[in-house]
Structures are given as C-alpha cells and as structure tokens.
Amino acid sequence: MSGLVKKGTFLCLIAAIVFVLAACSSTNNGSNAADKNAQKPADNSAANAPTDENNGDEAAQGAAQTTYPVTVSNYTMANGAWTAKEQTFSQAPQKVVANTQGAAELLIRLGLTDKIVGVAAVYGHVPEDIADEFSKIPVLAEGYVGKELTIGASPELVVGRGDLFQDADWGVGTVDSLNELGVKTYVQGTSVSGASLNNLYQDITELGEIFNVQANAAAYIQQLKTREAALAARASAETINYASIFDNGDGTVGIYNGNTDTFIESAVSLINMHNMLIDETGTISLEQLVELNPEALVISKYAGGIDPEQTIAMLLANEQVQSINAIKNKKIFVIDFNNFWGYGDSIFTGVEALADDLGL
C-alpha cells in the first residue's frame, strides 16, 4: 500500500454484504442474546488454563476422551433472539459443512479437514500454513450458500456463523429446520451478540468434545492464549477510537456501526482500540462521522469486492471529511473480512496486523 495508508486486512461486503449484516443484526440484537451468553459460562478449564507452553502440552496430553452420546448446549433463533438449544451427538460427525471460511479454518486447526464436505463464504486470504488442507475442501459457494446446496452435501452437522442459519438465498436454513431433517447444528458462540474472546475458547472446547479431539482443542487454546497475552502487552497507552466505513459503489461512503460485533470489540480491545459507533443506531451520516471525529478508520476487503484503494482515494478527495483526525493523520487501515467476520481464531491474525500498522 502507499505511504498514505497502512494495511491490516478487513473486508467490506459493500451493498450485498452490508445488507446481510444489517438484516442479520436484528436477529443478533435483543437482550436474550446477551443473557444467553451470560447464562452459558466459558469452560473454566480452558479459560483458566496455564499459558506456559510446557504446561499447555501437559494439559493437552491429559485431555479427556469423549464418551458418546454427548450433549452440548448451543443456540436456536426464537422470537428474534438466540436462545439455548441442546444438540446431542451419538458419535463424532463424519460429514460437516462449514458455512464460512472462518469456521472451516478452525476445524482444520483441530485436525478435522477430512470431515469437512463443504465450505462457503470464501472471502479472505487462507493462511499459508493451512492452505493445502483448505484446498482439499469442496467449495459449495464462493459467497454465502443456500439451504439446497448445503443439504445436497449430505452433512451430519452444519457449523458456522449464526446469522447465516436462516431460510434465505444466502442462508443454510434455520437451526430448527435443519434439526428436523436430522442435521445437527453448531452456531459459533462468537457470532452471537454479547460474545467475547471467551466464547472462542468455549467453541473450541465444545468442538473438541463433539469430535473427540479434546487434546487438539486444549493445545490450540493454549497457543491462542499466548497470542492474546502478547497482544495485550502491546496495547496502546491511549484508547484508539475507530469507525468502520465501506464503499457504496456509487461514489459515496457508507458507515457501519457494528452494533452486534461484540466479539470483534472484545478482540480489538486487547490493543486498546474501540469501535466508537457500536452503540449508535440507525443510519450514520457522513456529517455525523465528521462530528464524532474517529482517530482511525478501517475498511474491509473481501474477494470480489471493491478495491479499498479506490475507496481510500475517494475519501481523501472528499473535502467534507478532511477535518477527521483519521484522515489528517493518515490512520486508514484495510483489514481482511475473514479475519474479523469469520468468528474464529483468525481474529488474532487481524488484530496482530492492526497492532503492526499502528506501530504498537
């Protein structure tokens, strides 16, 4: 990227993606969703596990074996809010569909590549260390996948982002409708409003139990906790208030409030960044953005989307926004959509890139 802008890597789905995020935010918003996360505590053994590398190895070696049937408390949508719904597994699923790239990557990290019969929403860069494994997975759709294609893969389990569990062209089907067909579901807790990094560790722990790869799960949690601690040690001395923007595709800039992105907020807070729009509702105008005066701007990038450099050039040429500190100080960052909206372990890669760009 040019000297004007430093890159992280965050994707913006412009009109279509923003529509999905906006449409789905109503399903994630609601006090019940936050209450659900409060009622479903993170696994204590994962949250309190030692961060020492050797102790992590010992924890992994001492991990339990799953005794089937095993039941986990997960989610379903009821009256516009996520509520608890149990999923019982009589054995480890052998055929799994991941409704996003991020969900597939997480399953690969747990050693489950051979169980994945389909992936969709391949919007970001696949990490080099798992690129070969990822290439083995059938791509059901480069974008979001519908229920027909999902069921056509004959999955025993569908795993992934919560707001894609809907009966829509871009949805895999609701939790209840899939369950009625005999297909188990696992909604990533990270994708439910009210989530934090603790939900990532809980997701990994529960997937480890479902697939009887608890040793892999315990070891990977330790690796991620080490990265979490390293990021916290790099935190900015002052809070960095940022706003997310996107290209409307018609020569204008849109602003995304990220009301339901509590998981992302939890992750960026490690380096003392804060989404200053997270409590804003309704459409945010450019005039409001100027008044709010964010110290940093982030633009999401995704495969097939508008080139962020085009958006940046348009922004820098707009006289209306030149008083914004992020513009004046050239604090505009491009971040990878999959890292942040994959709701998986790649959130650390995204935040690490932001920390690098900020010089932390």
Backbone CA Rg: 20 Å
What is the number of strand segments?
Answer: 13
Could you report the average pLDDT, rounded to the nearest whole number?
85
Strand content: 15-25%
The CATH class of the largest domain? Alpha Beta
Gross geometry: globular
**Helix content class:** 25-40%
Order of secondary-structure elements: EHHHHEEEHEHEHEHEHHEEHEHEHHEHH
CATH H-tier superfamily of the largest domain? Nitrogenase molybdenum iron protein domain
Secondary-structure content class: alpha/beta
Q: DSSP helix count?
A: 16
The CATH architecture category of the largest domain equals 3-Layer(aba) Sandwich
Q: Main sheet? A: 6 strands, mixed
When the domains are counted, the total is 2
Q: Report the CATH topology name of the largest domain.
A: Rossmann fold
Low-confidence stretches: 1-55
Protein name: Fe/B12 periplasmic-binding domain-containing protein
Keywords: Signal
Domain Fe/B12 periplasmic-binding: 95-360
Family: Belongs to the bacterial solute-binding protein 8 family.
Describe the structure.
- By secondary structure, the chain is an alpha/beta fold.
- It folds into two domains: 6-25 and 235-357, Rossmann fold, CATH 3.40.50.1980; 40-231, Rossmann fold (3-Layer(aba) Sandwich), CATH 3.40.50.1980.
- Helix content is 39%, strand content 19%.
- The protein has helices spanning 14-28, 31-39, 44-47, 53-61, 101-109, 131-135, 147-152, 175-180, 197-210, 214-233, 262-268, 286-292, 308-316, 325-328, 337-341, 347-357, and strands at 6-9, 70-78, 81-89, 96-98, 116-120, 139-141, 157-160, 184-187, 240-247, 253-256, 273-275, 296-301, 332-336.
- The strands form three sheets. Strands 1, 9, 10, 11, 12 and 13 form a six-stranded mixed beta sheet that branches. It has a five-stranded parallel beta sheet with strand order 6-5-4-7-8. Strands 2-3 form a two-stranded antiparallel sheet.
- Strand 4 (96-98), helix 5 (101-109) and strand 5 (116-120) form a beta-alpha-beta unit.
- Helix 9 (197-210) packs antiparallel against helix 10 (214-233).
- The longest helix has 20 residues, at 214-233.
- It is globular.
- It starts with 5 loop residues before the first strand and ends with a helix.
- The relative contact order is 0.19.
- Mean pLDDT is 85; it is low at 1-55.
- Residues 95-360 form the Fe/B12 periplasmic-binding domain.
- Residues 30-63 are annotated as: Disordered.
- Residues 1-22 form the signal peptide.
